[in-house]
Design goal:
Distance between the termini: 88 Å
Oligomer: single chain
Largest sheet: 7 strands, mixed
CATH topology of the largest domain: Aldehyde Dehydrogenase, Chain A, domain 1
CATH architecture of the largest domain: 3-Layer(aba) Sandwich
Bound molecules: 2-aminohexanedioic acid
Number of strands: 23
Number of helices: 14
Shape: globular
Helix content: 25-40%
Length: 521
């Protein structure tokens, strides 16, 4: 990591700037392992990033889309060539198991692969005019300067979902990555620079949400950015929505979830138990798509829980570089503290804990199948399953973002759907059943933006629309062809070649019909 300057706070092509407010990035599996020390971009540096992006926009938007796509192609190839190294940095910096880190990096490669060819489409339409010698067209036009704020749980995939289509569509970008993953963000930026991204087109500002993030939000009020993308909490998303609304901007918001997974009485229970375990405990429950409420049909409830708890007992927890663990540490001390607070505040006397012990894993209180070094050196937590949860309990509708999920019981598909839809969130969801009538009703009535049938709540593929409803977002969708609507605006063009002022609607010359004609009865 010798090439990272100490205190780096702003990276824009060949321009590297530092600041004096320092932010060490540490390994959450072993806090003695300090990866690098970054700075926090000042408000002046954030403004400079936006100014550079504004200056670069004029030229970048005129660069032909297939040429812009060439940069994305090289970026994807560079990520691919560095996949293992980048995955190891991800694991070391935010603690997801190495197998998942490779998936995170692969999702960015997939995103590049998808958008390379989109650079040769970005289709508009030719539309017939109601006038002779007149042509109508639609064009996708870039929006301008895009400000992007991302979370630490998917430090490569999720930024790529925004940045790749934004740049491809001709926008320039200022990115504030999570303060938990600056080193991953540094290499992400370097790979984009090496891919040939021109000066000022892509700018990264490092720092905390409370300082650098706020400075970036202030640029919206100052009219320095034209589009905002944010992945994070519902509360912050609501604030961003308000700020953008005042400027008549529509941000792309990807917020929290309280994702339901239903197991009906006819389900393949072995498959469902594996899916629930993975949905709940993959990434230590720190995905926005992680399982929140497990809803079990009363007929299979006890049998299913026995199978599930048996799987949970066999999970390996520990060193995230180990290939066979289910999960490693929490992303940071803050995530661990929040999880411990949730255990203290959300669990009520009428709940039953199906797991024991709960809370932090330590040298004295180790997980049975512990893998790796000293748990006291990292932020590791036990898996927690809370039974007996009712719709009126706060834990039912609070996103917990840790290795914790609830169990609820239902007697019918109607009741299952009611519980699945009742939290106010609507990001991901899943049902395990082979009954077509259940599947049909579920697809029709589930409010979540994404749903799986006989698969986990997590693991969306990189070319389907990703996003949620209700408290999970503002209807924006990322990924695939759908995200292009976030980064372009439609322009309608009327081209009149007639040499006269042809008045639409008034001089169209519609052919008259005899509408009084009726057939003999
Ligand atoms: C997130 O947690 O913000 O569907 C993204 C999934 C991953 C992406 C999660 N492909 O679980």
């Amino acid at each position: 990591m010798q090439d990272v300057p100490k205190g780096l706070s702003f990276l824009s092509g060949s321009l590297h700037e530092t600041s004096t407010e320092l932010l060490p990035t540490t390994n959450p599996a072993n806090v003695k392992d300090i990866l690098a020390t970054f700075g926090c971009a000042t408000s002046a540096q954030v403004d400079m990033a936006c100014t550079r992006a504004r200056e670069a926009f004029g030229k970048w938007r005129r660069t032909p889309a297939p040429v812009r796509a060439g940069v994305i192609q090289s970026f994807g190839r560079l990520i691919e060539a560095n996949k293992e190294a980048l995955s190891r940095i991800v694991t070391r910096e935010m603690g997801k198991p190495i197998k998942e880190a490779r998936g995170d990096v692969q999702e960015a490669i997939d995103t590049c692969n998808f958008f390379v060819s989109e650079g040769r489409r970005l289709y508009g339409m030719t539309v017939p005019s109601e006038m002779p010698r007149k042509e109508l067209y639609t064009y996708r036009r870039p929006i301008g300067v895009f400000a992007c704020i991302t979370a630490g749980n998917f430090p490569v995939a999720v930024p790529s979902w925004y940045i790749v289509p934004a740049l491809l569509s001709g926008n320039t970008c200022v990115w504030k990555p999570s303060a938990d993953v600056p080193l991953t963000a540094y290499y992400f930026t370097q790979l984009l620079n090496k891919a040939g991204c021109p000066e000022g087109v892509f700018n990264t500002v490092f720092g905390r949400g409370g300082s650098t993030g706020e400075a970036l939000l202030a640029t919206i009020e100052k009219g320095m950015v034209d589009k905002v993308g944010f992945t994070g909490s519902t509360a912050v998303g609501q604030r961003i929505g308000e700020i953008c609304g005042r400027r008549l901007q529509v941000p792309c918001l990807e917020l929290g979830g309280k994702n339901p997974l239903v197991v009906m009485e006819d389900a393949n229970l072995e498959l469902a138990a594996t899916g629930a375990c993975w949905s709940g405990f993959g990434t230590a429950g720190q995905r926005c798509t992680s399982l929140g409420n497990l809803i079990l049909h009363e007929k299979i409830r006890d049998r299913f829980l026995k199978m599930l708890l048996d799987k949970v007992a066999r999970m390996q927890i520990g060193d995230p570089m180990n290939e066979s663990i289910t999960y490693g540490p929490m992303i940071s001390e803050t995530f661990m503290r929040d999880h411990l607070t949730h255990l203290e505040t959300l669990i009520q006397p009428h709940h039953t804990l199906l797991t024991d012990p709960n809370g932090r894993i330590t040298g004295k209180r180790k997980w049975k199948n512990w893998v790796g070094g000293d748990p006291d050196a990292g932020y590791f937590c036990f898996p927690t399953i809370v039974d007996g949860v009712r719709p009126e309990d706060a834990i039912y509708s609070t996103e917990t973002f840790g290795p914790l999920f609830n169990v609820m019981t239902c007697r019918s598909i109607d009741e299952a759907i009611g519980l699945a839809n009742g939290t106010g969130y609507g990001l991901s969801s899943a049902i395990y059943t082979d009954t077509p009538a259940y599947i049909y009703q579920w697809k029709e009535e589930i409010v979540a933006g994404m749903t799986s049938i006989n698969n986990s709540t997590t693991g969306a593929e990189a070319h389907l629309p990703f996003g949620g409803n209700g408290k999970s977002g503002n209807g924006a969708r990322q990924s695939g062809v759908w995200v292009i609507d976030q980064f372009t605006r439609w322009q309608a063009v009327n081209w009149d070649l007639s040499g006269t002022l042809q008045l639409a609607q008034m001089e169209t010359g519609y052919i008259e019909a005899d509408l009084h004609y009726t057939l003999p009865t």
